[in-house]
TrEMBL record:
Origin organism lineage: Eukaryota, Metazoa, Chordata, Craniata, Vertebrata
Similarity-based family: Belongs to the Nth/MutY family.
Catalytic activity: 2'-deoxyribonucleotide-(2'-deoxyribose 5'-phosphate)-2'-deoxyribonucleotide-DNA = a 3'-end 2'-deoxyribonucleotide-(2,3-dehydro-2,3-deoxyribose 5'-phosphate)-DNA + a 5'-end 5'-phospho-2'-deoxyribonucleoside-DNA + H(+)
Main localisation: nucleus
Cofactor: [4Fe-4S] cluster
Localization (cell): Nucleus; Mitochondrion
EC number(s) recorded for this UniProt protein: 3.2.2.-, 4.2.99.18
Gene assigned in the entry: NTHL1
Iron among keywords: yes
Pfam families documented for this protein: HHH, HhH-GPD
GO MF, one example: metal ion binding
Protein name: Endonuclease III-like protein 1
Keywords: 4Fe-4S, DNA damage, DNA repair, Glycosidase, Hydrolase, Iron, Iron-sulfur, Lyase, Metal-binding, Mitochondrion, Nucleus, Transit peptide
CDD domains: ENDO3c
GO biological process: base-excision repair, AP site formation; nucleotide-excision repair
């Protein structure tokens, strides 16, 4: 119906048309051409007051912005005035229309389908799998933090093997503090930047002992103050160790795929920028799932180099798909 109306009606800018007689419907239906910028050819809006049969005096309105409409444009909203008749009110459409990427729900469903078998490295060896689930809660939380500290710039297989060696050695705050740096280095080698990580693990563990009773902090603000802990890690720790979703954990996979699928309004340069951009529109109840989904998807199909677009269910709706 929208296509018919937009293609078949004209009118001056700002002039309201009652479409009810034309369409033969009982309910009032109004259409107005609006200038959306200095050049009126840029587009126009369609306003369809609905719920006229609800008995309510005030009508809600739906707005169909033209493709070219940008944020901050004024739109006119129709109401039944208390005196009878139609009243108009201008609102800024950006207050009512929130940006979200096209097709994202279909793309997400496709990724869920491609991840159905849960057979990516992250499923077997991610941070959720690396801690000793029979240990006391504070020790489990410490192990989650350590596995995430080890995991940056490191493949899951390498992190998992290092965690196994650490756990055999005894992965508690006290044990790590009693372990000399050379031995700790041998235990975690060859994780990425292992020398720096030895230093950060020792410093962080000492802080946990002194300030947190050998437990880990329970806020993002405190976590990011620990040496070697950044925002991505902090949000993942909050989710896994404290079961509290405070933000999206954006690693290199989530960052890359979000840009390929155009899940960010403008291209982002860093994972932290991507996190902020995703959190702006992605429903909060998906924040926890999205890291797990995209990390595994990035490990198996949407690879950093030579993504397997031919096998990807999103190949027809992905802006970055290789068509040949
Ligand atoms: S079509 Fe290719 S680039 Fe797009 S999501 Fe799938 S694998 Fe990644």
């Amino acid at each position: 119906m929208v296509v018919f109306l937009m293609g078949g009606l004209g009118g001056q800018a700002g002039e309201w048309w009652n479409l009810s007689p034309i369409l033969g419907c009982m309910a009032p239906l109004y259409w107005c051409r609006e200038e959306l910028g200095p050049d009126s050819s840029k587009g126009y809006g369609l306003k369809v007051p609905f719920s006229p049969l609800s008995g309510s005096r005030a009508h809600s309105t739906a707005t169909v912005p033209s493709k070219s409409s940008g944020k901050g444009k004024k739109v006119t909203v129709l109401y039944d005035s208390s005196e009878g008749g139609i009243a108009e009110k201008e609102e800024t459409d950006s207050k009512r229309l929130k940006w979200e990427p096209g097709n994202w729900r279909q793309q997400l469903d496709n990724i869920r389908e491609m991840r159905r078998k849960k057979d990516a490295p992250v499923d077997q060896m991610g941070a959720e799998k690396c801690f000793d689930s029979s240990a006391p809660p504070e020790v489990m939380r410490y192990q989650v933090l350590l596995s995430l500290m080890l995991s940056s710039q490191t493949k899951d297989q390498v992190t998992s093997a290092a965690m196994l060696r650490l756990r055999e050695h005894g992965l508690t705050v006290d044990n790590v503090l009693q372990t000399d740096d050379v031995t700790l280095g041998q235990l975690i080698y060859p994780v990425g930047f292992w020398k720096n990580k030895v230093k950060y693990i020792k410093q962080t563990t000492a802080i946990l002992k002194q300030q947190y009773g050998s437990d880990i902090p329970s806020t993002v603000r405190e976590l990011v103050n620990l040496p070697g802990v950044g925002p991505k890690m902090a949000h993942l720790v909050m989710n896994i160790a404290w079961n509290n979703v405070t933000g999206i954990g954006v690693d290199t996979h989530v960052h890359r795929i979000s840009n390929r699928l155009k899940w960010v309004k403008k291209e982002t340069k860093t994972p932290e920028e991507t996190r902020v951009a995703l959190e702006d529109w992605l429903p909060r109840d998906l924040w926890s799932e999205i890291n797990w989904l995209l990390v595994g998807f990035g490990q198996q199909i949407c690879l950093p180099v030579n993504p397997r677009c031919k096998e990807c269910l999103n190949r027809h709706i992905c802006p970055a798909a290789k068509r040949c």
